[in-house]
């Protein structure tokens, strides 16, 4: 691999890792296993080692994952909370121990082996024996203050027992015990709420709650296993921490070992594996740490991790079972997902009867067939997955799985046409009115960036569709307060009504939506190829939704394209579009009378086809019947050209200090600028905030001007 190829691969890996960091740390909703994440991370580490000149300060290898949530006050850690390097190989444990022995020649290097708790990393600070502050790890330097939530955990003492140090920072993991997790999910199931995927997600979701009263109802615990900043504490060995914490009344690890050789380390790891499933909390590995603090100091740190510790992760349990059938589910976005129906089998403490097969390509790659004996693994001990096929046990009459043929080329829910979407490597139902997608369209219409009726999203949208009160998104405008107030969000056995107060709030939001401008409505209708920027452009050149539906400008764009493709003169159409301000002469030398239009032919066709279709016509009729008249944000061609940012193209990346990307986009577009999703030579500015992505690198590569929020505000 040469440098150019390596640079491209490194960018892809960084983007992928950042995405999974966000899902794991901020949303507590991982979509890949720890092993798969570690594979991506190791690939990035290896490439950066091979090409050290490509290492950047914002690379995931140079920092700890996880950004603090804005809902909580942020606090700086007295000492950074670093993550540990992971391995699944006993050979790498051997290499780790050999390495620290080489760095500390002619010295004995005892280590401590302890459970790796699968929870949420936290720091607790006690001053003069009294709990002063608790925080999440966050990005390693700054975390979220969760003191009130931690105080709801019964095992966390408000005051330490006996003679306490002046300052004691203890670190560990908040977890949800297995039985409590099962009970919590049972309650959520009865209430019609989404289930937590695993105890770690449940613990993370609990700590995110702003109301401590909710947290108090969750069966949370904490395991403490280390110290951070201290004052008035004199200990030299990590092994001294466990009895100290116990003496002070703090919950700590029940089993740990001191090992003085590789054989003793591996023996301890094996012993822990034999007993870890009996613990109240989940463990996914063993942590090996140098025992002596003096030796740790000499060993030091890398940018991300201490050199004196490593986490060994146990392989996920794998079992064989029969794949009885493959069911195709239709998601809210219309994506068709194959699911394996299995002969129920116990895996990692629970019975698995289903496993995701991801998509058609995954089935083909593994050659998975109905009737096969398959190997099941709980990836990261969380998500059931089909790992492999035991082909020696395959029935002789088995046939390769044909995705489209299996469902007779139609959506299994509505019988509508399906299409393979190459971008997402998936099949999609084409029918916008497929019942499986109704909830999604209701949520989309009600989203903050659309009509901003957020109180009818999530479980409320599900129940509105399920109850028959809403059969299509515009039915929201027929709802009455009494309908909503009585809506049951739970089950028949355990009802939980929406309530009058919430109903009034929702109805008020629905009424406000009637008065929103045309751009918001065009976006909310989920017309293919019409994002927020395109909706804004259309609203600038049309007075009403009816004008858009029968737009002469959009017809002009299509007529112009057709004439150019046939080699016919299109000067008259070009002049009309330029005169309306909907196009400008092209700087390209490709041909005479070339123009660049505000929206291209793909968008024009998509919009006109939508409103010409039966569902589109029905939407126009319903909007008229409901008395909703969204007003355009029309600007004359002359005025549009005079706007301060007219003709300027912006791309946004990273987190801005005081405004959301949506707010920044709105401000730019209000002054005539365009916001696009990718950087090219035609981009005028890249607006970069904290932790920018690959767009930042692309801007530097193309010498596009990079500005920050302060510079944007000067422009505005």
Number of helices: 27
What share of residues are in beta strands? 15-25%
What is the CATH-assigned architecture of the largest domain?
Answer: 2-Layer Sandwich
**Low-pLDDT sequence parts:** none
Strand element count: 24
General form: globular
Overall number of domains? 6
Beginning-to-end CA distance, first to last residue:
45 Å
Walk me through the structure.
The chain contains 27 helices and 24 strands. Helix 17 crosses helix 18 and helix 20 packs antiparallel against helix 21 (571-579). The radius of gyration is 29 Å and the shape is globular. Helix 25 links the parallel strand 21 (649-653) and strand 22. The relative contact order is 0.07. The strands form six sheets. Strands 12, 13, 14, 15, 16, 17 and 18 form a seven-stranded antiparallel beta sheet that branches. It starts with a helix and ends with a helix. With 716 residues, the protein is α+β, with helices and mostly antiparallel strands. The longest helix is centred in the first third of the chain and has 24 residues, at 3-26. It has six domains: 3-62, Helix hairpin bin (Helix Hairpins); 74-313, DNA ligase/mRNA capping enzyme (D-amino Acid Aminotransferase, Chain A, domain 1, 2-Layer Sandwich), CATH 3.30.470; 318-428, OB fold (Dihydrolipoamide Acetyltransferase, E2P) (Beta Barrel); 435-513, 5' to 3' exonuclease, C-terminal subdomain (DNA polymerase, domain 1); 514-635, 5' to 3' exonuclease, C-terminal subdomain (DNA polymerase, domain 1), CATH 1.10.150; 643-716, BRCT domain (Rossmann fold), CATH 3.40.50.
């Amino acid at each position: 691999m040469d440098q150019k190829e390596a640079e491209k691969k490194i960018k892809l890996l960084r983007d992928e890792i950042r995405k999974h960091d966000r899902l794991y740390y901020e949303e507590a909703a991982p979509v890949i296993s720890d092993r798969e994440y570690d594979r991506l991370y190791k690939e990035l580490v290896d490439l950066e080692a091979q090409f050290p000149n490509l290492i950047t300060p914002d690379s995931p290898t140079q920092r700890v994952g996880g950004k603090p949530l804005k809902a909580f006050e942020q606090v700086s850690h007295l000492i950074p909370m670093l993550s540990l390097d992971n391995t699944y190989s006993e050979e790498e444990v051997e290499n780790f121990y050999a390495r620290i022995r080489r760095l500390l020649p002619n010295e004995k290097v005892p280590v401590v082996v302890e459970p790796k708790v699968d929870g949420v990393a936290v720091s607790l600070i006690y001053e003069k024996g009294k709990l002063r502050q608790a925080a999440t790890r966050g990005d390693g330097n700054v975390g979220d203050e969760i003191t009130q939530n931690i105080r709801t955990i019964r095992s966390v003492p408000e005051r330490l027992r006996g003679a306490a140090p002046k300052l004691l920072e203890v670190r560990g993991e908040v977890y949800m015990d297995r039985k409590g997790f099962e009970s919590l999910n049972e309650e959520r199931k009865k209430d019609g709420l989404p289930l937590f995927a695993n105890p770690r997600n449940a613990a993370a979701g609990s700590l995110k709650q702003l109301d401590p009263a909710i947290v108090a109802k969750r069966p949370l615990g904490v395991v403490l296993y280390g110290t951070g900043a201290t004052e008035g504490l004199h200990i030299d060995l990590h092994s001294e921490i466990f009895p100290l914490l116990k003496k002070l009344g703090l919950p700590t690890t029940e089993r740990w070992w001191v090992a003085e050789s590789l054989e003793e380390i591996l023996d301890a790891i094996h012993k822990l594996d034999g007993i870890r499933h009996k613990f109240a909390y989940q463990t996914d590995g063993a942590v090996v740490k140098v025992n002596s603090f003096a030796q740790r100091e000499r060993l030091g740190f890398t940018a991300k991790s201490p050199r004196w510790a490593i986490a060994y992760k146990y392989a996920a349990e794998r079992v064989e079972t029969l794949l009885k059938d493959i069911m195709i589910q239709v998601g809210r976005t219309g994506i068709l997902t194959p699911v394996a129906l299995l002969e129920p089998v116990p895996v990692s403490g629970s019975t698995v009867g289903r496993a995701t097969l991801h998509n058609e390509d995954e089935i083909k790659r593994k050659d998975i067939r109905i009737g096969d004996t398959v190997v099941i693994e709980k990836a990261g001990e969380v998500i059931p997955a089909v790992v492999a096929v035991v082909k020696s046990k395959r029935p002789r009459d088995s046939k390769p799985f044909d995705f489209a043929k299996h469902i007779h080329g139609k959506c299994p829910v509505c019988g509508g046409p399906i299409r393979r979407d190459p971008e997402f490597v998936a099949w999609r139902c084409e029918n916008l009115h497929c019942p499986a997608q109704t909830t999604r369209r209701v949520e989309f219409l009600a989203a903050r960036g659309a009509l901003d009726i957020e109180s009818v999203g999530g479980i409320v949208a599900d129940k509105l569709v399920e109850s028959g009160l809403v059969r299509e998104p515009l039915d929201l405008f027929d709802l009455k307060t009494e309908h909503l107030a009585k809506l049951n969000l739970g089950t028949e056995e355990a009802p939980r009504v929406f309530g009058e107060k919430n109903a009034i709030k929702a109805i008020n939001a629905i009424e406000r939506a009637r008065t929103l401008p045309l751009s918001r409505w065009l976006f909310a209708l989920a017309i293919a190829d019409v994002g927020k920027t395109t909706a804004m452009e259309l609203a600038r050149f049309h007075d009403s939704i009816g004008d858009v539906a029968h737009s002469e400008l959009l017809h002009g764009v299509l007529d112009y394209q057709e004439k150019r493709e046939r080699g016919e003169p299109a000067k008259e159409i070009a002049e009309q579009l330029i005169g309306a301000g909907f196009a400008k002469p092209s700087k390209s030398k490709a041909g005479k009378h070339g123009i660049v239009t505000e929206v291209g032919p793909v968008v024009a066709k998509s919009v006109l086809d939508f409103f010409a279709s039966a569902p589109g016509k029905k939407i126009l009729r319903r909007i008229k019947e409901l008395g909703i008249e969204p007003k355009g944000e029309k600007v004359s061609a002359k005025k549009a050209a005079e706007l301060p940012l007219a003709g300027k193209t912006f791309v946004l990346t990273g987190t801005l200090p005081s405004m959301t990307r949506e707010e920044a986009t709105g401000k730019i577009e209000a002054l005539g600028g365009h916001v696009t999703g990718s950087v090219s030579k035609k981009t005028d500015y890249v607006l970069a905030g904290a932790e920018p992505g690959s767009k930042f690198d692309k801007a530097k590569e193309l010498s596009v001007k990079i500005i920050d929020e302060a510079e944007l505000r000067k422009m505005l």
